[in-house]
Amino acid sequence: MAMQNQVETLADRPAARVAERLALRARGLSDRTVAWLFIAPTILLLLAINIFPLIWAIRLSFTNYKSNLGHLPIRFVGLANYLDILSDEDVWHGLQVTAHFVIFAIAFQVLIGFGLALLINRGFRGHGFWTTVILVPMMLSPVVVGNFWTLLLQPQIGPFNYVVGFLTGVPSASFSTIGDVSLAPWTIVMVDTWMWTPYVMLICLAGLRSIPDYIYEAAEIDRASPWRQFWSITLPMVMPFLMLAVLFRAIEAFKMFDLVNLLTSGGPGSTTELASITLKREAFEKWRTGYSSAFAIILFVTVFGAANIYVKALNRVKRR
Amino acid sequence: MYKELYKCCQPPGLTNAYMQEGLDAFKSGQVAMQMNWFAFFPGLYKDQNVGGDKIGFFVNPAGPKGQFSQLGGQGISVVSYSDKKDDALTYVRWFAQPAVQQKWWELGGYSAAKSVVQAPGFPASQPFAPAFLTTMGFMKDFWAEPLYVDLLLDMQKRVHDYVVADKGTAQEALDQLVKDWKKVFADEGKQTN
User: Fold this and answer.
1) Number of CB pairs < 8 Å for A and B?
2) In chain B, how many H helices and how many E strands?
3) What ipTM goes with this model?
4) Count of structural domains within chain A
5) One domain for residues A250 and A288
6) What is the pLDDT of residues A80-139, one digit of tens each?
7) Is A127 part of a structural domain of the chain?
8) Is the pLDDT of residue A16 over 70?
9) Which domain holds residue A45?
């Protein structure tokens, strides 16, 4: 026992000395200084990996710099890159393809996700298990999803074509969803919807679970129909959650690259060439670094501006 | 004509295919005929499903302006300022020897050395040797503009949009391509718009 006490005392001594030293050193520092000391590493990291590249890209966007010809002198071209982009028909085509993808993917994800959330919220037998099963797609890597959907949609060996052929009688090897000009834009919407509907469902489910039961009880006492309860209670109270889901998904869909690049690489032709794929081609195939920096800045400002307007609308809905 | 060929004869889904995709389509029986580099022919001939007596090799047909073929692959280059320049040249001299070139052909490599292709037994040495010999006779190599990657990417886009995605007419695709190419040359200071 005496031995144990001696050990504790010996072990405590250096610890106490360190605490004293720290206390001495920290004495005289204000709370604000200590707070800055804690967050400084994070801020430095953010400046290094987010802000510095952004400023660098803005600088490059006014030049003719090509990173594969880095040895050549860089020439300042003013707004020429921006004017080139805004007058380029291909860029506008890419933005139209992106808009089609964003609008329809979000619409389907919200409709199906909200429907699934309503279903899961009823609490039927085994709903926990089914919730987990439904969530699986969003847990997968987009690269994995892109690759296995490419196989699923393969005309000769893909089960998707086989099922469609079985149901419609059309020979399964006679068509290709990702190789057809009219089907490919809808195919990328379908795969993105498959992957991200669970995410929207999860947010909607959180919204549905936050509605207190007594509101529905009061509505039932007032003999409100289920339809009336849905329009007057459920939808308005879930609306901020839905809008948040739309915001998150819209930002992600606007930046979409990996999944579509694996599925179609922007093809057939440029039918599914989203703005991000055009940007990658300009930056890493043609190595037009200055031009692609300007394009990236335009996309960034577009998303940032649209998100800000949307957040203001979201705040108005929340204040109601 | 190229568009017609694409519409009639490519397997579904093969909208952006190069050598590997072409080989896959041929080996899996999706297509009965493909155009590809000679370098793959030894492998195709040995393939259990499509090789041996099931396969035949032939040369490119003539086009409207004559019958030509392009040399594929890369030549051996020696860096003029390298410290190992002498070693590199020694290797080139060794590799260019008739006996080495003959061995190279026998092992599956391709040789354009006259000592190999003009040898009496050459046409019978491999099933694809006669086609190779004929092709070498009308091979026409091209001087490659250093900007060829940018030019090819633009061409790929415009031709692809017209042939695969049915966008516009052939004339519009080529007019657009001329604009793209002028821009590429202008960006490099080689031509003013």
Assistant:
1) 58
2) 10, 0
3) 0.71
4) 2
5) yes
6) 999 999 999 889 999 999 999 999 999 999 999 999 999 999 878 888 888 899 999 999
7) yes
8) no
9) 2-60
